[in-house]
């Protein structure tokens, strides 16, 4: 057990180097600024990353620490009728890009998560986002994989173990959510204690 804990901590320490932490803070500022300008955040990923996308959206729409107005964030792929109809009639590779096409507007944000960095549907979503003038944020392992030239603001790590990458992602997006909330709603600091559900 001690070895397992030390291995996890070492992985996190290696991931959160100075460059990565600077990237986290920069992205926090970008997201806060875009929200302030009235833009929307779209988020997508597959499997565990799909759950992460929903988690991020929930933190922004609901709250992180501060009781405050909601922020416009939406996880793509949560409508099962849309997901299955489009996948059945067309192809799975464009399930996210189709939704970016429908909901994304110039100046909005697309935040993608992929542990491998090579999820085809995520890559296609990034391409459409670029065409439509959205800014793109990417989180991935494997040093970004195929996402390297498609992401404006990358948070890539040199890690290949999927659970380890997901743990890095969780801590990363919690920090971003916290920083965005602090920047936009410092005057709402009537906090409720964190609850366990």
What does this entry look like structurally?
The structure is a single chain. Helix 5 (95-103) packs parallel to helix 6. Helix content is 52%, strand content 12%. The protein starts with a helix and ends in a 12-residue tail after the last helix. It is built from seven helices and five strands; from the N terminus they run ααβαβααβαββα. It is globular and about 50 Å long.
Described by strand count, sense and barrel closure, the largest sheet is: 5 strands, parallel
Low-confidence stretches: 193-197
Number of helices: 7
- Inertia-based shape: globular
The side-by-side strand order for the widest beta sheet comes to: 2-1-3-4-5
The N- to C-terminal Cα distance equals 26 Å
Percentage of β-strand residues = 5-15%
* Record field, number of beta strands: 5
Topology:
Layout: H1 2-15, H2 18-36, E1 41-44, H3 48-61, E2 73-75, H4 80-89, H5 95-103, E3 109-114, H6 120-132, E4 135-140, E5 153-156, H7 162-185
Helix pairs in contact: 2-7, 3-7, 5-6
């Amino acid at each position: 057990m001690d070895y397992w804990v030390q291995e996890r901590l070492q992985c996190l320490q290696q991931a959160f180097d100075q460059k990565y932490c600077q990237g986290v803070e920069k992205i926090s500022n970008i997201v806060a600024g875009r929200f302030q300008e009235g833009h929307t955040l779209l988020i997508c990923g597959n499997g565990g990353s799909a759950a992460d996308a929903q988690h991020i959206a929930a933190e922004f729409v609901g709250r992180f620490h501060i009781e405050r107005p909601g922020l416009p964030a939406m996880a793509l792929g949560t409508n099962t009728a849309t997901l299955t109809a489009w996948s059945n009639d067309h192809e799975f590779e464009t399930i996210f890009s189709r939704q970016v096409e429908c909901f994304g507007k110039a100046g909005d944000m697309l935040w993608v998560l992929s542990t491998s960095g090579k999820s085809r549907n995520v890559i296609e979503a990034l391409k459409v986002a670029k065409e439509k003038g959205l800014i793109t944020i990417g989180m991935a392992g494997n040093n970004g994989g195929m996402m390297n030239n498609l992401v404006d603001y990358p948070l890539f790590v040199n890690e290949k173990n999927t659970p380890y990458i997901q743990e890095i992602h969780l801590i990363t997006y919690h920090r971003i959510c916290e920083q965005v909330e602090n920047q936009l709603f410092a005057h709402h600091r009537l906090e409720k204690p964190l609850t366990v559900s």
